Automatic annotation (TrEMBL):
InterPro entries: EmrB-like (IPR004638), MFS (IPR011701), MFS_dom (IPR020846), MFS_trans_sf (IPR036259). CDD domains: MFS_MMR_MDR_like. The lineage of its organism: Bacteria, Bacillati, Actinomycetota, Actinomycetes, Kitasatosporales. SUPFAM superfamilies: MFS general substrate transporter (SSF103473). GO terms for molecular function: transmembrane transporter activity. It is a multi-pass membrane protein. This is MFS transporter.
């Protein structure tokens, strides 16, 4: 049984290293959006290259995050966590030194692999190290500090872009890793799941990531309408079919199909796909809209986004407690509708937009909607499966959210008629943004309708999430299996 106490020096070191590790990945998922206009200008990148700067990271992270958790259970959680930290830092260094957009995109894909190793590992280390009496408090502190990191991410990114330059958005990860990895090796006990057995589903992970990559490429490049794009899209669909076939026939699949026998689990993942697709498109385009059209500096644009994550950080735990009393159906119905209203309010944000009257009201409503729905969504995912599969269910839900976000970043500019050089023209970008926000709002309304029609109150006494404070806008919080 784990026996490290939170008040002990070792307990504090464990908490520090897990917060540092998870913060690297969490910050990178939010700060890069703010840096995109400067990256495009400095590297002479097209809109498609900027989409890939975001999506190359998300493809490998979403496709491999379940495998990353399994590797830690088998080979040692500390070992895989440290490997992820070092890998992530090395890829970040390559991002920061990238001379071309192509090298930057390749480095971002490598970053996603590191993120898939360290993201599930940070929480698993806490679950496996701390005494049961201290575990919930340790998880609460870990998620709270992580939420603070997510909240300051856009501000930090804006400050770096406006000051030292966008490359420091990535280079900053290197000194953090140099601090994090030695602390982990010295102070974190190694642990593994003795029940882990069988072969790793490497084929399933590869097919999943390949399918996402091919479909993303087809959506981003679809403006050209070439035969190569059509063939790539067909290959992506074929890889998706092959992925499903492999998962149905493997003895130890990465994504067991039978987990979707739970209608509640299937329903809440459909809601997740809708809401996080809209969130992904919204935050990608808004960071550009504020700078390209409204004329905000990177620092002002990053600071402008603070209210949404701040509201989540302050009120997500209270939202979860309220949903425990009312059931998840109401917040999962109302939350997406609030977010849809926020996206329609963003139509007021144009050239010379005033922050207090045009931008802030939309972001406050957006934050209220996210506060309302994110914590109940996570709780419903955990409550819809057997307690022994809670970690798997959370991982699937987290991967689904990230996959939805990357598809939205790929598809939304196409659906909104955004040209390859649109971000260089305030007029063209503003017109496309005004077409994109109603599309995102419609997807949120669809999520609300699905929640109202399909989500039901879970059985009494089901598992509740330990990560009650959450500030990330890219994916719901992860939960790990709890050791005895």
């Amino acid at each position: 049984m784990p026996d490290v106490r939170l008040a002990s020096p070792q307990g504090k070191w464990i908490l520090l290293t897990t917060v540092l590790g998870s913060s690297m990945a969490m910050l990178d998922s939010t700060v890069v959006n703010v840096a995109l206009p400067r990256i495009g200008r400095d590297l002479d990148a097209s809109l498609a290259a900027l989409q890939w700067t975001v999506n190359a990271y998300m493809v490998t992270l979403a496709g491999l995050i379940l495998l990353g958790g399994s590797l830690g259970d088998r080979y040692g959680r500390r070992k895989i966590f440290v490997l992820g930290v070092v890998w992530f830092a090395a890829a970040s260094l390559l991002c920061g030194l990238a001379p071309t957009s192509g090298i930057l995109i390749a480095a971002r894909a490598l970053q996603g692999i590191g993120g898939a190793l360290l993201t599930p590992g940070s929480l698993a280390l806490i679950q496996a190290s701390f005494h049961p009496d201290d575990r919930s408090r340790a998880v609460g502190l870990w998620s709270g500090f992580g939420g603070i990191g997510a909240a300051v991410g856009p501000f930090l990114g804006g400050w770096l872009v406006a000051g030292p330059g966008w490359r420091w958005v990535f280079l900053l990860n290197v000194p953090v890793a140099l601090l994090c990895a030695p602390i982990a090796l010295r102070h974190v006990p190694e642990s593994a799941d003795q029940r882990a057995h069988g072969r790793f589903d490497v084929l399933g992970a590869a097919l999943g990531a390949l399918s996402l990559a091919l479909l993303t490429y087809a959506l981003i490049e679809a403006r050209g309408g070439s035969l190569a794009v059509a063939l790539t899209g067909a290959a992506g669909l074929a890889a998706a079919v092959a992925f499903v076939h492999v998962e149905r026939h493997r003895p130890d699949p990465m994504l067991p199909p039978d987990i979707f026998a739970s209608r509640q689990f299937t329903a809440v993942n459909l809601v997740t796909l809708c809401v996080y697709a809209a969130f992904g498109g919204f935050f990608f385009l808004t960071a550009l809209q504020l700078q390209v059209v409204a004329g905000y500096s990177p620092l002002a644009a990053g600071t402008a986004l603070l209210p949404t994550t701040a509201l989540m950080l302050l009120f997500s735990s209270r939202s979860g407690a309220l949903a425990d009393r009312t059931g998840p159906r109401l917040p999962l119905t109302v939350g997406p509708l609030l977010c849809a209203v926020a996206l329609l309010l963003m139509l007021r944000v144009g050239e010379g937009a005033d922050y207090l009257t045009d931008v802030l009201p939309a972001l406050l409503v957006m934050g209220a909607g996210m506060v309302t729905l994110v914590a109940p969504l996570t709780a419903t995912v955990l409550a819809s499966v057997d307690a022994s599969r809670a970690g798997l269910a959370s991982g699937i839900n987290n991967a689904a959210a990230r996959a939805a976000g990357l598809v939205a970043v790929a598809a939304l500019p196409l659906l909104a008629g955004m040209g390859a050089e649109a971000y260089r023209s305030p007029t063209a970008f503003d017109a496309a943004f005004d077409r994109a926000m109603p599309i995102c709002a419609g997807v949120l309304v669809l999520g609300s309708v699905l929640a109202f029609a399909l989500v039901r109150r879970p059985a009494p006494g089901c598992r509740r999430p330990e990560c009650r404070t959450h500030g990330s806008v890219t994916a719901p919080p992860l939960e790990a299996n709890r050791p005895g």
